[in-house]
Amino acid sequence: MACLGTGGTLLIEPLLQELHRVIGFDSGGYFYPGADGELDAFMESPDVQASVPEHLDPGIQHSENLVFRNTLRAPGDIVLHEHGPRSMEQMLRDTSLETLLRSDYYNVVMRPAQVRDWLCLPLRTPQGQGVGMLFLFRSARAQPFQPEEVALLARLEHQLAYILQGGEMDAQDSEIHSEGVLVATLEGQPLWISPEAEALMPLAFGWRWRRGAQLPAALLELLRRLRAPSGRMELPAMRLHTAHGWFSLRAILMNAAHAPLPGQPEHAVALHITHRVARGVRLLSTLQTLALPQRQHELAWWLARGLSESQVAQRMGISLNTAVYHRRQLYNRLDVTGREELLSKLGHAVPARR
């Protein structure tokens, strides 16, 4: 984590991968303020991700309130939690573990997600604003989190908050990863979805997207703009970002002559979804697969980001001679002779940038 600057929610996936190396846990998750002002979630485990709608269901809230001291339903709830990491047992009210295991919250949310224990850590800016809530989950097969693991996560609190608050990564430092199309009526009834869009919808809209249900609010807003009379010629468009990257949404009115499906209504709308991924995030994921020593890992990051050796030395707090030594060690380890070969080895994850 030493080479990470601020980058926001886009860094949560590689950050969790780094945490796996220092704290043993089965899967991680992150609740954070979404682009629409509501609580959004990123979960490593598909089982845990599938439980998020149940966790946020108002009908389950009463059961959760009965067994836990604090709940997490909205971004404002992040700052209501105490500072520092807490285990699941510490969050329980004056009740026994058996009471939790009999609760609706456990049987509807935790058991299907195969979660038996967790560490949670609320993250705040220095000004006290909620950044997000980090969770490390363990299943029934694993031992509960130990005090030394809680203490280790506590030492990382400020660095984690710094990394995950909004930062320097932006859509200009990204590349198109995939595109897809969803066809719907003007009123919002889904008609057809491409395989690419099928994969993109949960990345863009998370727990709010379930096939067969109503379209997410952002897509409904695009359809409303398309129906509304306007003198402007621009097609309705929108951008949003999540922990998975940036998403561009466009709505284009179709006619029957171009209908992709038999029996399609006269007025159907093609909703185009474009997914962009931050180059820095791709670079981090690539570096993690190489399992480099810490200094070489950090050096490779800065070299791939376009910094000179003197700039790298300054960023790493080492002398220029030491930076040159680590660079030679890195090149030998990866069997490359220069920066161009290094970038090629890293899959052209990022272009040189100064």
Automatic annotation (TrEMBL):
It comes from the Bacteria. GO terms for biological process: regulation of DNA-templated transcription. Residues 7-174 form the GAF domain. It holds the Pfam family GerE. Residues 289-346 form the HTH luxR-type domain. GO terms for molecular function: DNA binding. Keywords: DNA-binding, Transcription, Transcription regulation. Transmembrane segments: none annotated. This is GAF domain-containing protein. It comes from Diaphorobacter ruginosibacter.
